[in-house]
Amino acid sequence: MRQSKKFKAYPFDYHQEIEVEIITLSNLGVGIARVQIDDTEMGLHQSAHDKTKNDGWVVFVPHTLPGEKVLARIFRNDKSHSQADLIKVIEPSPDRLEPACELFGKCGGCQYQHLSYEKQLAWKTHQVEELLQHMVGIQASVSSAIASPKQWGYRSKITPHFKRPRDGKIGDIGFLLAGQRSHLVDVLQCPIAMDEINEMMPRIREETRANAKAYKKDATLLLRATQGRVETNHRNPISETVITDAGDITFHFLAGDFFQNNPFILPAFTGYVADQASAGGAKYLVDAYCGSGLFSLCLAHKFEKVAGVEVSETAADWARRNAELNKISNATFLASSAEAIFADIAFSADETAVVIDPPRKGCNEEFLNQLFAFGPSRVVYVSCNPATQMRDLKAFLTAGYKISGVQPFDLFPQTRHLECVMVLEKIEVS
After folding, report:
1. Same domain, yes or no, for 214 and 341?
2. Is 384 a catalytic residue?
3. Residue of 310, 419, 420, 425 with catalytic role
4. Domain end among 183, 210, 231
5. Does residue 121 fall inside a structural domain?
6. Catalytic residue chosen out of the listed positions 384, 420, 425, 428
7. Residues forming beta bridges with residue 96, ordered by sequence position
8. pLDDT for 241-286, tens place per residue?
């Protein structure tokens, strides 16, 4: 590979090979090493403030594990760290496994296939602990991550991509190449996808290539398992059933809409949220970001009344249909503007618990201000991105809430991703 003109030649040369020991993992699942750099030369490149914090120059090496000695090749020097490719593992960790997928290390979808599942759970728990400490400045108790009942073949939805056809032919169909933003790796089978998806994959790939003339730009396919079959049309309605302690609840929604993609862990996941939301004795529940009603309907039996709130009228309509389908009469759904999320909520705040499950970017300031103005007694914050959850946590603490529980769930085995449920209680002012 030719050296980029933008390459910064400090502290390592382009493609310089170095032996390093991995000390920990980043929240992206990348191995972290620290290398001592000559203090005199460092002084020319770092501020005095940075030098006081210097415990060694950070080098990120993907597909490595703590305790391993590895040979790495530098490809980028940034202001405070370098990035390197793994050449070989010199001294492997006892926790290292042979990856189940031959594309591991090439496909960017999985980061932990080389790590035992027990250790995956431990690192995900540790990840939340570190984020609490470094982003919020507190050492709160974090419960051990709850395991997925299935570590392989659990994912009910995958979305392979491909580039615009050239000369009437489609190239690779798959996912982003590890460490890349545009290059793809061809994926014939995905071991974390459900069996019916992998059975359907060859046919879908063949049909897509045969229909190449229909695609004028980059495209994304959909394969979504539902009721023993695979749906490929984003606009077709599908269903998913979740087991609760009040019975089975069936949800209908469009195949392309958001719904949790690991159905096997949903009973434990929704059950925990239900128990925590109702633990404070609240009579009423508000489910913000309610979507098609997952939490609203799975938790309804715990409360006298439930109000699901959505900015999307379409999502609110699906939630209403699902309530009717499951004969749940104490849940209503509102489509509110982003500026007035709680305007139509008539519940007493002191008797109300709120569940929030925002997108990866977390809650915006406008929503949080409205939530704090409403002032519910208890908030259960469900997040697929603990980093933005910790950012929002600082606002909760300032607004007079305290942490009463932090519980990670492993909805995405073999990957760095996790769901984190944080329980927040309003501090009573005497």
Report:
1. no
2. yes
3. 419
4. 231
5. no
6. 384
7. 115
8. 999 999 999 999 999 999 999 999 999 999 999 999 999 999 999 9
